[in-house]
Amino acid sequence: MPRSVPEFIAAHTRTVPVPFLPELLLYQADEPIGLWELTEGEYHSESPPPFWAFAWAGGQGLARYLLDHPDVVAGRTVLDLASGSGLVAVAAARAGAAAVRAVDVDPVAAAAIGLNAAANAVAVLPDVADILDQRPDGAAVVLAGDAFYSRDMAARMLLYLRRCRRAGARVLVGDPGRAYFPAAGFTRLARYEVPAPVALEDAAVKPTTVWELV
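The chain above was modelled as a monomer; its predicted structure follows.
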């Protein structure tokens, strides 16, 4: 049994290129079920399946947009919400962000974010916290990849993103057509056909849209 969370992650994932972003590496699991069972023990996650172990379609699309449009984040402070693996945060850092804070409620995700940032030789600050009921933290750009996966999460996320927008932040979301994403109030920036983890999705490719809150 690995003695630390980073050792656990390294033992149950492989560091491989992200399907839609081959220039980035990520600690990724081959399938969710065995890892899910393991995380219900010593390394229990409050949000199964282990979101940090996969490159979700919404995050891939948003990360792709940042790498292709680095001016969105270059020289700016960035907040990545429900960061999971930290893929979007890593892409923001690679695109030249001045500072990147990656927030997730799962401490195992925070460890994965640190490992993934190191694998890509970028600086990202992992933060284990639930900030959705707080005031905006002052970031110039706020990002959320694939964060509208449940009714409750979507409602809280939207309220927080609106507060950030009112505070002057630019707010971008990557979403592959989740049922709870509220497109009203958003404008479309890009659309991609993104490879998806087949063990977790209903299709091998998910049409994914990058949206901006207006």
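Residues 186 and 213 are 4 Å apart (CA to CA).
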